[in-house]
Amino acid sequence: MPVSLQEKQQALTNLPRIFPKLQLTPDDVTSPRTPNYNCIAYAAKDETKWWWPTPFWLTAMYRLPHHHWPQGLPREHPPTVENFLRAFEIEGYSKCKTGNHEFGYEKVAIYVDANRTPTHMARELGDGVWHSKLGEEQDIRHHVLVAVENQVYGKPAHFMRKRILGISRWQILKMYLRRLI
Fold it and tell me: 79: phi > 0 → left, psi -120 to 50 → alpha, else beta; which?
């Protein structure tokens, strides 16, 4: 769905107040605001529902919305990095050391707060550019992971990668050249 110029202008004004390291251009705002999915779902390429391992007892007690979490994984409060890693292993990712771009791989980054609790995820689709869904705000592109660091989101601390299937060396070269231009 296209993003209106007015919404892009609002994002350009408001988001850097929340994320002081974020430098946006109008083209970096890639979707309108929506409460339909969150950053974890967006990292998993699911723009239909929120992902979070909220325990059922907690959703019932506080009348919170029920969120999706992969079947067979624990619903826990507070959430753990290990649970997020397992969720994305189910999606075909494996742990890697850094968020640095690797040709032929897409990546996800898990942000943690000062208590080492997962707070946010970003995705990189194999072209070296990171993408985030910012709560109920817009989806954005950011060229460095630190762009969305703040006191709430914390810092990127864990990284996973997944081989891009069916990608030829020519396609990898085209992605690399696009990044240089």
Answer: beta
Q: Would residue 63 count as lying in a domain?
A: no
pLDDT per position as a tens digit, 65-119:
889 999 999 999 999 999 999 999 999 999 999 999 998 899 999 999 999 999 9
Chain centroid to Cα 61, Å, comes to: 28
Which residues, 6 or more positions from 30, have their beta carbon under 8 angstroms from its beta carbon?
Answer: 3, 131, 138, 139, 140, 141
Tell me the whole-structure pTM to 2 decimals.
0.90
**DSSP 3-state of 124:** strand
- 141, β-bridge pairs: 131
The number of distinct structural domains making up the chain is 1
Q: Which residues contact 56 (CB under 8 A, 6 or more apart)?
A: 66, 75
- Domain containing 102 equals 5-49+93-180
Q: How far is it, in rounded angstroms, from Cα 45 to Cα 152?
A: 23
The answer to whether the CB of 40 falls within 8 A of the CB of 25 is no
Q: What are phi and psi of 28, to 5 degrees?
A: -80, -15
Residue-wise pLDDT tens digits, 30-56: 999 999 999 999 999 999 999 999 998
CB 66 within 8 Å of CB 59: yes
- Please enumerate in sequence order all residues whose Cβ is within 8 A of that of 86, keeping only pairs 6 or more positions apart, or say none: 70, 73
